[in-house]
Amino acid sequence: MGFWVFIFAVAVYVAVAGYTDLRMQRIPNYLTVPTAVCGLLFNILPSSFTVPLDTSLLKSLEGFAAGFGLLIIPWFFGGGGTGDVKLLAALGAWLGPLYVFLAFVLALLFATVMAGVVMTIKFSQNPALQPKKNEGERPSPEAKKLGNKTLRRRRNSVPFAIPVAAGTWCVLGWMVLKVLLPTS
Length: 184
Fold this sequence. Notes:
By secondary structure, the chain is mostly helical. It is built from nine helices and no strands. It has a single domain, classed as Four Helix Bundle (Hemerythrin (Met), subunit A) (Up-down Bundle), CATH 1.20.120. The longest helix is centred in the middle third of the chain and has 29 residues, at about 95-125.
């Protein structure tokens, strides 16, 4: 029973985080902080409840630190927001260091593919994003309102919580397959 609670809780968390990041372009503390605390508490439960997971408070804290550490340096240099850092830290509290690292690597692969697709579609279909042919052209009303730099950043960004959710669902799927199809 505990394993399925774990799978459901983590799957829903990353889904809500992905949706929130897509809609609001941020992942609020009221989502990440309680999730991290619940992950720590879940991993304190007796192992008979959470079988077949290797759970302990130490594994949870290691996962939290690993998730935090994976994105804190890129954040420091402007490569993402603090919500992404907290998202991965809370996820690490649930998954532990190995699985959060696997989810992160898969998220990077998904983010790369998504960014390529988004850029290809945006540049092929939207003339406002095409390089200007002559410098005398006037900016669009939307560009005036937001500022050209902000507008370009918003149009060209991929909310990182979405690839994190996809990577996490792959890891969860693998965990479920390990439970349903045990190896001899």
